[in-house]
What we know:
- With 300 residues, the protein is an alpha/beta fold.
- The protein folds into 2 domains: 8-99 and 207-296, Rossmann fold, CATH 3.40.50; 104-204, Putative methyltransferase TM0872, insert domain (DNA polymerase, domain 1, Orthogonal Bundle), CATH 1.10.150.170.
- Helix content is 40%, strand content 14%.
- It contains 13 helices and 7 strands.
- The protein has helices at residues 8-15, 32-40, 53-56, 75-81, 98-102, 128-134, 137-148, 153-164, 172-178, 188-204, 206-217, 234-246, 277-282, and strands at 22-25, 45-49, 65-68, 87-93, 221-231, 265-267, 290-296.
- A 7-stranded mixed beta sheet has the order 3-2-1-4-5-7-6, sandwiched between helices.
- α3 (53-56) links the parallel β2 (45-49) and β3 (65-68).
- The radius of gyration is 20 Å and the shape is globular.
- It starts with 7 loop residues before the first helix and ends with a strand.
- 41% of the residues are buried.
Amino acid sequence: MYHRPVLLEESLDGLNIQAGGTYLDFTYGGGGHSSAILERLGDGKLIAFDQDPDAEKNKIKDKRLLFIRGNFRYVRNYLRYYGITSIHGALADLGLSSHHIDVAERGFSFRFDSKIDMRMNPEAAKSAVDILNQYPEKALKILFFRYGELKNAGRLAGAVCKARSKQKIFTTGQFMEAIQDCIPVRGQQKYLAKVFQALRIEVNEELESLKQMLEQIVSFMNKGSRLVIITYNSLEDRMAKNFFRSGNVKGTIQKDFYGNIVSPFRQVNRKILQPGLEEIERNPRARSAKLRIAEKLSDQ
């Protein structure tokens, strides 16, 4: 198990697992959450998604587990293919696994000088190398501003374009050298984390995938079923918050005749759940995790 599950007990309690039910783990990773779900599942069924072939190598041998090597953005198609018409709950831990961060060749971390790849699915066509060397300066600026929320996105994009005009940017070391003058003296680690986050989100189309998954899964949820989302940045968390509150990712509110907000969900925890000091000390990467839980109000 190469991923230490974040907020494990809180997410399992949030799912309110019923023995014999059908559940989804949208982010299998090292199998930590899936293994814990199976312990409570009885004779139920667990469908786990992951587009990374390394995750499939960690597949638990259990007849109750159906592992799907694919992006959860296609959940509707996969569930229909396997004849699954309804579920009792779903969990998505949207963080990177320790495996992704600690394996230099995957190119997710600025701690190593390796190919700056960042693909969750190594077979995907577009890597961070392609983005850094092919995107126009304006597109890079938008990317760094939108997905990294970086105030000097324009300067950052300009630095990338200047460097690539002399030599193709292929490694994390070359990229770091290209943007060196853009990195603030204080808060370097936080700044670089945002830069790499922006690239990773673009490479894997993470926000669009999350949007599509949320919009598709609601029709498969039974009354009383739970959706548990663990996010690690404000962009993901805002999307989950909007969806749970309004039933759409933009957060557009609709009200009934009496002025009550119309939503397919009841928010189980109006105050987000976050790791305690003990868990953060044990796993510092859990520091930014936020957990939200919603319950489906009807079968419609």
